[in-house]
Amino acid sequence: MNYEQRLMKAKSFADIFDIVKAMVSEFLGIDQAGLMVGLSDFGSFGSSFVGAFYSLNANTIVINKRPLSRIKQTSPELYNPYLFHVMLHEYVHSIGIFDEAQVRQLVFEISSRFFGENHVASQIASNLDNFLPNLVYPSGEFENTLPEDIGIEFIPGIDRKNTNYIM
């Protein structure tokens, strides 16, 4: 099954994360094992938000669940491509690339290579601003709100690769 079909049929964060890892491994020949992925509410700030971040110290990707909720309400067909984009962006950080412009360019190159430039994931990577109406709440609704709970909900089974550690 090709990557486009896999993304379309993905039913879980782990399914999408497997696609991200496979693409990066194929494109760059690099793999990062032992990552954790979690969800948290980062709040919102008008028409802007933090989509996710990678914590180098914790080897963890934390995804903002507020835009995910908004996508489910407005355009559920964007859910998997958006989640793929965010996970790919942060995964690229996890392999040691921290320059934002370089990460954005690489995410676009990877998405375009495996999905084609017309695929939604590639379009998101090209210009996220075009998708903001589907990611943020209308003016006045949850505008400039702090998160109610900043706890991280870790996603089980995210790193399915069997990793052997040397003790």
Side-by-side strand order of the widest sheet: 2-3-1-4
> How many domains is the backbone divided into?
1
Report on the biggest sheet: 4 strands, mixed
Structural class: alpha+beta
* Strand content range: 5-15%
Question: Could you name the ranges where pLDDT drops below 50 across 5 or more consecutive residues?
Answer: 162-167
Helix % is 40-55%
Number of helices: 7
CATH superfamily: Metalloproteases ("zincins"), catalytic domain
Task: Please give the oligomerization state of what you see.
Answer: single chain
Give Rg in angstroms.
Answer: 16 Å
CATH class: Alpha Beta
What number is the mean pLDDT?
85
Helix/strand layout:
Elements (H helix, E strand, L loop, with lengths): L2 H7 L3 H16 L7 E5 L11 E4 L4 E5 H10 L4 H16 L5 H16 L4 H7 L5 H4 L17 E2 L13
